[in-house]
Structure formats: structure tokens, C-alpha cells
Amino acid sequence: MISTTNYQYGDAIEIEHLDDKDEILSFMRSVPDDGSIAAGYFCDVVTGEEKTTIPDRLYECSGFLWDSCDLYHFDKYDLKLSDEFKEFVRSKMNR
Known about the structure:
Elements: H1 21-30, E1 33-43, E2 50-61, E3 64-67, H2 68-77, H3 83-92
Antiparallel strand pairs: 1-2, 2-3
């Protein structure tokens, strides 16, 4: 889990503004998905609307796992990421 809460399963979603959000998002999107896809689609946990146009894919890099739902909520709502994941991504970015 790369977020600070288990927001997809009922915990409150936490948000955090990051100055390097675009760079982190770019890194997350650059990792190829592992080829697996969920049988359904995920819901927007803020609005409750089902996102029927976004397939839920899984991504993995160096032991960190995230899915399309995490990408969506980080992009749209500034989903708060764990400190360990942010440190890992920042260590991979060219600064």
C-alpha cells in the first residue's frame, strides 16, 4: 500500500499537497503495469461515482504496489502517499 490509509476499503482518504506532485505522478505512470487487470472498475471514493472508463491495473516497482485507483486519486485529489513511497520515488527522480 502506497497511501497512508486503506481508503479503498472504507478508511477516510487523506490528502496532501506536494510541490513535486507532477514529477511523482509522472514516475508512477512510467512504470509498466504488470499485465493484470481487475474484473471491474473502481469507484471515486470522494464522489462515490463509478469510473467505468478506467480499468483497474496493477503496478509494481521495487516492492511498492499501486493500482489505477491510487493513480486516479493521487492525480485528482492529492491522495496522501506514505513517506517511504515518496522517498523511494524521489530517489529515482533526476534532480
